[in-house]
Design a protein that fits this description.
Helix content: under 10%
Largest sheet: 7 strands, mixed
Structural class: mainly beta
Order of helices and strands: EEEEEEEEEHEE
Strand content: over 45%
Number of helices: 1
């Protein structure tokens, strides 16, 4: 079973940057899509960004488009989320997840929260 360990979260001022990392216990190249999701108290669970394995296609939620960048390194079994121009509304627990479906699109994975494995998450707090 695939397991994830997220890191890189912390406290940052508005306008700052963080880079989240997600280390997988297995071969992420076996999974068709990897994504970052977030959950904040009182807010809906949100698919932030998802990336495919086959063609590198990406999806970003409108709330982070232009500010966040997702990438994956299959050789290192790792996924990253570069977050720039952070806002207080970005405060949440961020976790990575993987889908084993060969038919899923990155948009479907992110929008419909369709994944099979996920990590425990890392806290990101944006505050002055």
């Amino acid at each position: 079973q695939l397991q994830f360990v997220e890191s890189g979260g912390g406290l940052v001022q508005p306008g700052g940057s963080l880079r989240l990392s997600c280390a997988a216990s297995g071969f992420i190249s076996d999974y068709y899509a990897i994504g970052w999701f977030r959950q904040a108290p009182g807010k809906e669970h949100e698919g932030v960004s998802c990336i495919s394995h086959s063609d590198g296609r990406t999806y970003y939620a409108d709330s982070v488009k232009g500010r966040f960048t997702v990438s994956r390194d299959n050789a290192k079994n790792a996924v990253y989320l570069q977050m720039n121009s952070l806002k207080p509304d970005d405060t949440a627990v961020y976790y990575c997840a993987a889908s084993s479906s060969p038919f899923i699109t990155v948009q479907a994975m992110c929008v419909n929260n369709r994944y099979d494995y996920s990590g425990q998450g890392t806290q990101v707090t944006v505050s002055s």
